[in-house]
Amino acid sequence: MTEVIVLNGGSSSGKSGIVRCLQAVLPDPWLALGTDTLVDAMPAFLQVSDAGIEFAPDGEVIVGPEFRTLEAAWIEGVAAMARAGARVIVDEVFLGGADSQQRWQKALRDLSVLWVGVRCESAVAAGREVARGDRTIGMAASQADVVHRGVVYDLEVDTTHAESMECARTIAAHVR
User: Fold this and answer.
1) How far apart are CA 69 and CA 74, in angstroms?
2) pLDDT tens for residues 117-171?
3) 117-128 burial, b for 16+ CB within 10 Å, e for fewer?
4) Cα distances (Å, whole numbers) of residue 9 to 50, 51, 67, 119, 156
């Protein structure tokens, strides 16, 4: 039985919409946790510090040692929730590509995980980013490809032309 679904994609690729649709179409209750959840939970000073996480004017995201420490604890906490019986959908941005996936694989090693790549053409994601108004301009373009480098998926969806519900149904069909 699938215990964790990890969605990885760049900013504004459509992951959050897919997560909400998955929660609606999957027969059991699933918790939704994402990298935004982690960032929002951090003290404000770590959201603007080179020790925490910084959002450069060009959209680059820079993470420091305090962020990595808290992220490691958070990943272990998400894994513990799944081990305790919660089914979890993780909305992630693997800034380090394969290295980021390896951190999750280590924590989730004994769980049944469905790894999903969420792709979106850079120009489309950049347009969504502008329309959202809550992201640093340039993040979508800078992350569109780098987050997938070296990452191995069970399934990939592309939100360039597919709606969130269509992608969610495709993913749900692979959940055991």
Assistant:
1) 9
2) 999 999 999 999 999 888 889 999 999 999 999 999 999 999 999 999 999 999 9
3) bbbbebebbbeb
4) 24, 24, 20, 6, 10
**For residue 36, what are its two tokens?**
């935004």
Closest residue by Cα to residue 91 from 17, 167, 144: 17
Among this protein's residues, is 36 annotated catalytic? yes
pLDDT score at 54 = 92
Mean pLDDT of 27-33: 97
Here the tokens at position 78 are 């998400």
Pairing relationship of beta strands 31-34 and 88-92 according to DSSP bridges: parallel
The predicted pLDDT at position 85 comes to 98
Residue type for position 120: C
Averaged over 19-43, what is the pLDDT?
96
The token pair at 12 is: 């504004």
Contact 120, 158 (CB under 8 A): yes
Active-site pick, 36, 40, 145, 154: 36
163: tokens are 């709606």
| SS3 (DSSP) at 93 | coil
